[in-house]
Amino acid sequence: MQVVAIAIPAIYRSTVGKKAVMAVTGGILVLYLVAHMIGNLKIFLGAEDFNHYAHWLRTMGEPAVPRRTVLTIIELVLGASIVLHMWSAVSLARRASAARPVKYQSKKKSHAQGYATRTMRYGGVIIAVYVIWHLLDLTFFVVNPKGADATPYQRVVADFDPSRWYITVWYVVAVLLVGLHLNHGIWSAFQTLGMRSPRSHNALRGLAATTAALVTLGFVAVPVSITFGWVS
Ligand code: HEM
């Protein structure tokens, strides 16, 4: 037991350990996003189905376990994954800049790597701000026009009302950033997990891009359909 307790921080201190933490926590977050996106699409089945789904999220596992037990476990795992993912990202970025006191010699390399790094870094920060907004909106109802005395369906529909088109734009921009982040993140995780090879290169590139595109399209569909009046 003691060996494990000592070994975990030692592994975590290494660059490979931090990358592994990023890959595993990123994987958990991707699974959550896919499930969340599929759940959101229930809005197209109508108010009753969507509200039933929101109710099920809270009563999952009943009567074996009390209400909200499974949801609370999911929330704790998600929260821990987000914190560990961001923490590893910051410490890897610090380590990379400490190891490179002189800027890249080749401009070409600096541009290509700089683009991916900037997209991940600033995109990640905007996504974190978005998640906080989104929780205040649809989990704690603080910034939602309908508030706590409404059904989940009414809250989502009120959120993206045509008069609040700027909220839709904000959600769509954030979700597009999530898509870019997923595309690069999944691809990087394949590298960390040692899955990339010349033979698997194209298939894994396609898998990362397809997953990112499907998640993005699924998420964008809901706010856009409400703002255009296709769902009301
Ligand atoms: C743009 C489309 C999206 C819509 C319409 C949407 C809708 C919702 C709704 C209705 C809830 C409350 C579920 C409930 O408890 O009944 C929720 C929760 C949540 N969403 Fe989203 N969401 C979207 C995109 C995202 C994205 C892109 C992320 C992450 C980057 C995300 C992360 C979360 C989280 C962390 C929760 C809280 C889960 C919990 O603790 O209960 N959502 N979302």
Automatic annotation (TrEMBL):
It holds the Pfam family Sdh_cyt. GO terms for cellular component: membrane. The chain crosses the membrane at residues 20-39, 70-93, 122-143, 163-182, 203-231. One of its GO terms (molecular function) is metal ion binding. Coiled coil: none annotated. InterPro entries: Cytochrome_b-558, SQR/QFR_C/D, SuccDH_FuR_B_TM-su. Its main location: membrane. This is Succinate dehydrogenase / fumarate reductase cytochrome b subunit. The lineage of its organism: Bacteria, Bacillati, Actinomycetota, Actinomycetes, Streptosporangiales.
